[in-house]
Each structure stands twice: as C-alpha cells, then as structure tokens.
Amino acid sequence: MSIVTVGYHPELTAEAAREIFQRHFADKYKVYKRFAWDIVVEKSPWAGAGVKLKQGTGKTRFDVTRCLPSVLRGTLLVFFGLLTLGLLYFLFVWLFVRPAQKAIEKEVKSFIESAEEFK
Fold it and tell me: Which distant-in-sequence residues (6+ apart) come within 8 Å of 32 by Cβ?
C-alpha cells in the first residue's frame, strides 16, 4: 500500500475526488466506486488500484492499494490459487511423503515379521 499525502483540502469528498480521477483517466481506464474503496482505477480485468480518501487533522491523504477490480475475478483467482496450492501439496505428498511412508511401513512390517519377541 502507498500513502500519498497532498495539501490539506477539507472540502474534498470521495465523490469529488472520483470525478477528478474520471476526468484524468477517462480515455485510458475505467474509474468507479466499489465497496472497499472510494475510487477504483481499472487498467484491465486483472489489474487495478483501489484508492481511499482519508481526511485527517490538517492533512488530506490517499491510500492506494493494488487490487483485482472484479470481485468475481478476485474470487476465481483465490479459488484457483488455492486449487493450485492444493495440487502442489498433493504432488509433494505423492512424490516425497508417500515413498517415505511406504518405506517406513515396509521397515516396520519387516521388523515385526523378523523380531524374536513376536515369534
């Protein structure tokens, strides 16, 4: 997240700031409001910036965060990210853990079969 402090403008509202952003980015990007941010600048369906206007004592600032503009795309990305992690975990278990488990199982079985205490 980036914090950008500008000159003190107590009269500046989120709506007015969004209009300023819309005028500036009108030809290049979509600009709109979304629940988490006062302003979203959407470069593409997968890349954007969320902006929150903060009025403090004697200062005006913008908090700028990278974001996925679409909630659905964000949900899908998280889902597929988790799915990918799950698949990587499965591959890790299959390739490394399972052979080790099989080896210790074989070793214990062999011990039980050959130990005098169990004959």
Answer: 18, 39, 40, 42
Q: Which two tokens stand for residue 110?
A: 């062999």
Show the tokens assigned to 30: 């979509």
Tokens of 68: 């996925």
Instruction: Sketch the domain layout of the chain as residue ranges.
Output: 2-69, 73-118
What is the fold of 2-69? TATA-Binding Protein (3.30.310)
Q: Give CA separation, 36 vs 32, 63, 67, in Å.
A: 12, 12, 10
Residue-level pLDDT, tens digit, the chain, 119 residues: 788 988 888 999 999 999 999 999 988 898 999 888 899 888 887 778 889 999 998 889 999 988 776 665 666 667 777 778 788 888 887 887 667 656 566 566 666 667 676 55
